[in-house]
Amino acid sequence: MTKKSRSYRDDLLKSLTDPDEAKEYLNAALEDENPEVFLLALRDIVDTNTSMSQLAQATNRNRESLYKTLSEKGNPQLSSIRSILSNLGFKLIVDVN
């Protein structure tokens, strides 16, 4: 008899519905030297907590542009990141190292 394996991604996305877990996930992604890691983490948060269509409407962007912004090759402006974070219930801050 074989056990069903659980999807790591499913468990991750479920945990990201908790704002504190999502905050820690985003902060950990920011510590990575590769900026793509943060964009992908932010996309995970979006996928978990809203739809791209809803977020696009809330941020006054089109859905395709938002997908591109949050892709591995995205190059968003700081204002875009702030708008996305704000609409997800987060804010961008700087802390002492």
Notes on the structure:
With 97 residues, the protein is mainly α. 62% of the residues lie in helices and 0% in strands. The longest helix is centred in the middle third of the chain and has 15 residues, at 35-49. It is globular, with a radius of gyration of 14 Å. The N and C termini lie far apart (50 Å).
Briefly, what is this?
The protein is mostly helical. About 60% of the residues lie in helices and about 0% in strands.
Question: Topology, please?
Answer:
Blueprint: H1 8-15, H2 19-31, H3 35-49, H4 52-58, H5 63-69, H6 78-87
Order of helices and strands: HHHHHH
Low-confidence stretches: none
| Whole-angstrom Rg | 14 Å
- In terms of structural class, how would the helical and strand content be classed? mainly alpha
Average pLDDT: 90
Note the main sheet: none
Helicity level? 55-70%
Assembly of the depicted chains: single chain
Number of domains: 1
DSSP strand count:
0
- End-to-end CA span: 50 Å
Form type: globular
What is the number of helical segments per DSSP (H or I, 4+ residues)?
6
The amount of beta strand, in percent, is under 5%
